[in-house]
Amino acid sequence: MASQPKNVGILAMEIYFPPTCLQQEVLEAHDGASKGKYTIGLGQDCMGFCTEVEDVISMSLTAVNSLLEKYSVDPKQIGRLEVGSETVIDKSKSIKTFLMQIFEKHGNTDIEGVDSTNACYGGTAALFNCVNWVESASWDGRYGLVVCTDSAVYAEGPARPTGGAAAVAMLVGPDAPIVFESKIRASHMSHVYDFYKPILDSEYPVVDGKLSQTCYLMALDACYKSLCNKYEKLEGKQFSMTDAAYFVFHSPYNKLVQKSFSRLLFNDFLRNASSIDESAKKILAPFESLTGDESYQSRDLEKTSQQLAKPLYDEKVQPTTLIPKQVGNMYTASLYAAFASLLHNKHNTLAGQRVIMFSYGSGLTATMFSLKFNEGQHPFSLSNIASVMNVAEKLESRHEFTPEKFIEILKLMEHRYGAKDFVTSKDCSLLAPGTYYLTEVDSKYRRFYAKKAHENGQVNGH
Ligand code: ACO
């Protein structure tokens, strides 16, 4: 019988994104958008995407296998495996079951958990499930493992530059360097049609871009208000932006993250929080009487609060933006890729600090929650997590494609989506050793993957 677990949270992380990408500046020119629209207007630098040999299953296989290997975790030590994804490959068979290939080889089939789906929120649901399991009476002393993975692709049009692709794997257990402050958590869930995928023979969503932006900000306000109230009841003092060292947001594109952070500042102003000094109060006073709806429409408020929030944004948010700006919206993986950016940039100074996370999935589901850092013990230390993820090298070693080539690949993927009886090019020349890739979908729609050999190693089929 396992003893009562303490400090449950994230012990280890790995991130995988495709080595293939497209510069936003180049895409902007190709699309005939005005100069600066994608780079300054959306705030994005580059976009990662899967070619025909990669998908959410191959990316997940790569991330899970790499995490187990690099942290020397025995696959038999995993007791729960949860996947968050909104990329539909099979309406019945979960991505989790594909990942079982890694564990079956080691004689471990006793692993609970399946996939969670609701737009970009599924990864957070999967993470909560694993944390709750470790904290529950049914925990058997083994680790939980969470995978957030998506390939975000949009039809031709204004949403296309907000795509991306990645898989993030996270090991969950007690005595973690990244601990859940489970009481400091607030959700907002509601029925709206801002982004959804009713067309089952297409990978592309139906999206009301403007509505999705407003829904995101409304959900953020609701979660922040509720989190502040809960904190105040619990701690007997007010919560404000100064109570967290960092804020990590689900990141469809960076401009929305900038707007979100300034929205928190406006919330602090309305709550008369100590984070807002007298000069900021004077500047924001003209906006105090706006109704909620008016405040979402006010360009003046947006501009003013963004300017006021800029120094705090640079300190508390900018270190979380690296991967989302470079890879794009990774849907369920987006929030955790932003978190990985923070670990990459600040792992030496995080111990003792609090970070507030905001997860948003259209439709809509949203949660704001709090994490606290400890130094951790090798291999589960903050510095080792940063070194395993090796973010800078992964970003630098990518290959840039032209928009023409990107569009050609998307056309092929449209044709292949839901199709059977094809073999891929099996061209894994751009993939790093150890990366899984799709080789074939047979006449019964069964998918087959191989792993690119390490030097002098063997290629393994799945
Ligand atoms: N230089 C600098 N900035 C520019 C330029 C330029 N040349 N041209 C436009 N801009 C600015 C605009 O002013 C705007 O900034 P603002 O929001 O501060 O006003 C920004 O660039 C985007 O321009 P828009 O005209 O608003 O863009 P458009 O409506 O064509 O598309 C959108 C943007 C709606 C985000 C689209 O990409 C989309 O639908 N994406 C998918 C939906 C999405 O990501 N929603 C977010 C939450 S839900 C989720 O995570 C999927």
Question: Can you describe this structure?
Answer:
- 37% of the residues lie in helices and 22% in strands.
- The protein contains 15 helices and 20 strands.
- The chain has helices spanning 24-31, 37-41, 56-70, 95-104, 122-134, 209-235, 254-270, 278-284, 292-297, 299-316, 322-327, 334-346, 382-389, 391-396, 403-416, and strands at 9-16, 20-23, 46-48, 78-84, 115-116, 143-152, 164-173, 178-189, 195-196, 206-207, 246-249, 354-361, 365-373, 376-377, 380-381, 399-400, 422-423, 436-441, 447-451, 460-461.
- With 462 residues, it is an alpha+beta fold.
- α6 crosses α7.
- It has a single domain (9-418), classed as Thiolase/Chalcone synthase (Peroxisomal Thiolase, Chain A, domain 1, 3-Layer(aba) Sandwich), CATH 3.40.47.
- 48% of the residues are buried.
- The model has no long low-confidence stretch (mean pLDDT 96).
- The chain has a 9-stranded mixed beta sheet with strand order 5-4-6-7-1-8-13-12-11, with helices on both faces. A 4-stranded antiparallel beta sheet has the order 17-18-19-20. A 3-stranded mixed beta sheet has the order 3-2-16.
- The longest helix is centred in the middle third of the chain and has 27 residues, at 209-235.
- Acetyl coenzyme *A is lined by residues 34-37, 40-42, 120, 158-159, 162, 195, 207, 209-210, 212-213, 216, 252, 255-256, 329, 362.
